[in-house]
From TrEMBL:
GO terms for molecular function: ATP binding. The lineage of its organism: Bacteria, Bacillati, Actinomycetota, Actinomycetes, Pseudonocardiales. This is Branched-chain amino acid transport system ATP-binding protein. SUPFAM superfamilies: P-loop containing nucleoside triphosphate hydrolases (SSF52540). Residues 3-233 form the ABC transporter domain.
Amino acid sequence: MLLEVQGINVHYGKIAALKGVSLEVDEGEIVTLIGANGAGKTTTLKTISGLRPLTSGAIRFKGQDISKVPGHKRVILGIGQSPEGRGIFPGMTVLENLMMGAYARKDDVSKQLEEVFELFPRLAERKSQFGGTMSGGEQQMLTIGRALMTNPSVLLLDEPSMGLAPLLIQQIFEIIQTINARGTTVLLVEQNAQQALSIAHRAYVLETGMVVKSAPAQELLHDPAVRAAYLGGDLGLH
Ligand SMILES: Nc1ncnc2c1ncn2[C@@H]1O[C@H](COP(=O)(O)OP(=O)(O)O)[C@@H](O)[C@H]1O
Ligand SMILES: [Mg+2]
């Protein structure tokens, strides 16, 4: 197993955001984590990447317990994160933003840069444009591209489709599939459950800090309870 989250509890002060969350991501998979606002999806990703400490439980990556490894070292181990809400550097150019993603690497990053530009031709065209002047969709691509610059084994994506127009949403999901087909494992957090389940191999449903369901993604796509709660309920219209 590439990534194992084992019964983690995570708190913000006295408030428990995650209550014994367990999940697994195998090499080569796209696994999606769906759930309502406030369910704990972002907290789960942040705890995996080392931005939040856990109170108990463990996170294992490539067989190693990384629960206490600092975040910047997890990047080097192969965990790449594309955070919620984009978080690019607005005053830096596209190229500078991408190079920030590679800061932890000592080796030659030109091949990685070439791959990112191949995935996102728009970023290549706009290399010297300031990040802050890019459109929402372009900034989302930049955020994903920056995470890819570390050449991660697993890419954590937090709501990559948020705030995008339908056509761009479609494009982002296709790119996620391409990234996966090229060998990167993906853990995808989405409120857009329909699209996420359509491209994922397996899925977990998170409710108030707990995993309440896990199954092959196709199975959840046709699960009446999941449809009612997260997919607008109507089987016929989607
Ligand atoms: N910085 C924070 N301080 C206090 N509570 C927080 C903080 N971030 C998140 N929470 C709480 O933790 C819970 C999970 O939040 P989050 O992981 O952001 O959910 P999701 O990403 O699924 O919307 C929510 O109840 C939220 O209010
Ligand atoms: Mg979130």
